[in-house]
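Researcher: Let's do a round of design. I'm pasting the structure tokens now; please hold your answer until I've finished.
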């Protein structure tokens, strides 16, 4: 991947260097998943893309997902700390525009960075991770 001419400025790091790389950035563009929580733990604002096949998305929205957010960090915060672009919003132009809005607003990045760290600290809770995760998931399922 790094040998591809279009990717000449990209440095690919191993797992051990990931936290340092994350901590050195002002903003991330990420796919939805564990990486968003890792970024949030370090206070890195991110634009998160999430796209599924339409039948899968329709089933998920209709029967399982009650939250208006897809990232666990936003669900835990009860508001959009990480910018989410879902389904038709995950185009290059829309993702780039969302990133540019973050880059143009250092005060927003600083404020959000603090909120991300606070939110992920609260997500750690009392060590009963599996029980809390199950409660959150059950709360999102239909009765």
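Researcher: That's everything. Go ahead.
Model: Designed sequence:
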């Amino acid at each position: 991947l790094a040998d591809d001419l279009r990717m000449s400025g990209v440095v690919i790091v191993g797992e051990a260097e990931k936290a340092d790389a994350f901590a050195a950035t002002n903003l991330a563009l990420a796919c939805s998943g564990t990486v968003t929580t890792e970024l949030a733990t370090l206070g890195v604002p991110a634009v998160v893309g999430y796209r599924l096949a339409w039948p899968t998305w329709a089933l998920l929205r209709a029967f399982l997902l009650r939250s208006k957010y897809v990232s666990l960090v936003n669900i835990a915060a009860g508001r959009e700390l990480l910018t989410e672009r879902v389904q038709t919003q995950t185009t290059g132009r829309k993702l780039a525009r969302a990133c540019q809005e973050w880059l143009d607003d250092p005060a927003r990045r600083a404020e959000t960075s603090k909120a991300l760290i606070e939110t992920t600290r609260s997500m750690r809770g009392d060590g009963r991770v599996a029980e809390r995760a199950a409660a959150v998931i059950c709360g999102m399922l239909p009765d």
